[in-house]
Specification:
This protein has 181 residues and is mostly helical. The chain has a single domain, classed as Heme Oxygenase, Chain A (Up-down Bundle). It is built from 6 helices and no strands. It has helices at residues 3-29, 37-48, 51-59, 71-80, 97-118, 138-180. This is Heme oxygenase. InterPro entries: Haem_Oase-like_multi-hlx.
C-alpha cells in the first residue's frame, strides 16, 4: 500500500466509523421546519446549546488547523428573531488533541450542510449562521491535515479523532432532541 492509499484509508475510517452518528444528527435536525419562525428559532437554539461549547473547547488546543468560529453569527440570528441565546449543554470535555481534531471535523463539516439548509429558510429570516462564508479550499485543507495527522500519529490518535467526532455529533443530537420537546 502506498502513502496516498494509507492516508485515504485513515480518512475513510473516520467517515465510516462516524457515519451512523452523523446520520442520526441529520435525521434529528430534519424534523425542524425552517420555513416556520418558531421551528427555525428552535433549530438555532439547538445549535446554540452546542456550538459555543465546542468552539471554546477547540480554542484550548494550540496545534489545530486554522478554523473560524460561528457562534457570534448564531447569536446575531437569534437576536434578530428576538430570541435569547440559550445556555450551553453540560459536557465532559475530552483532553486529547486528536479528539479536538475530530470535533473540528464535525463543526467545520457542518458548514457544508448549512449552505444547503439556508436555501430552505422562510422569507426574510436571518441567515448569518447558515450562510457563513468559508475560505476557499479550507475544507479540503482540513481533510488533508486530518489525514496526515491520523497517519503520522498512529492508531491511538485515530481512535481519539473518532471519539472526539462522535462526542460532538452526540452533543448535537441531544440538543436537537431537547429543542423538539
Amino acid at each position: 500500500m502506498n502513502l496516498i492509499e494509507h492516508k485515504n484509508e485513515a480518512l475513510t475510517r473516520l467517515r465510516v466509523t462516524t457515519r451512523a452518528a452523523h446520520e442520526r444528527v441529520d435525521e434529528a435536525f430534519s424534523h425542524y421546519n425552517l420555513e416556520s419562525k418558531i421551528s427555525y428559532i428552535s433549530f438555532l437554539k439547538a445549535h446554540a446549546k452546542v456550538l459555543p461549547l465546542v468552539e471554546n473547547w477547540l480554542k484550548s488546543f494550540q496545534n489545530l488547523p486554522e478554523w473560524e468560529g460561528r457562534s457570534e453569527l448564531l447569536r446575531h440570528d437569534l437576536a434578530s428573531l428576538q430570541s435569547d441565546f440559550p445556555p450551553t449543554l453540560g459536557w465532559a470535555r475530552r483532553t486529547e488533541e486528536g479528539a479536538a481534531l475530530g470535533g473540528l471535523y464535525v463543526i467545520d463539516g457542518s458548514r457544508l450542510g448549512a449552505k444547503f439548509l439556508s436555501s430552505r429558510l422562510g422569507a426574510g429570516f436571518p441567515s448569518s449562521y447558515l450562510s457563513a462564508p468559508q475560505k476557499k479550499g479550507s475544507w479540503s485543507r482540513l481533510l488533508s491535515e486530518i489525514q496526515t495527522q491520523m497517519v503520522d500519529k498512529g492508531e491511538a490518535f485515530q481512535d481519539d479523532v473518532i471519539a472526539g467526532a462522535r462526542a460532538v455529533f452526540e452533543l448535537f443530537y441531544e440538543s436537537a432532541l431537547s429543542e423538539m420537546e
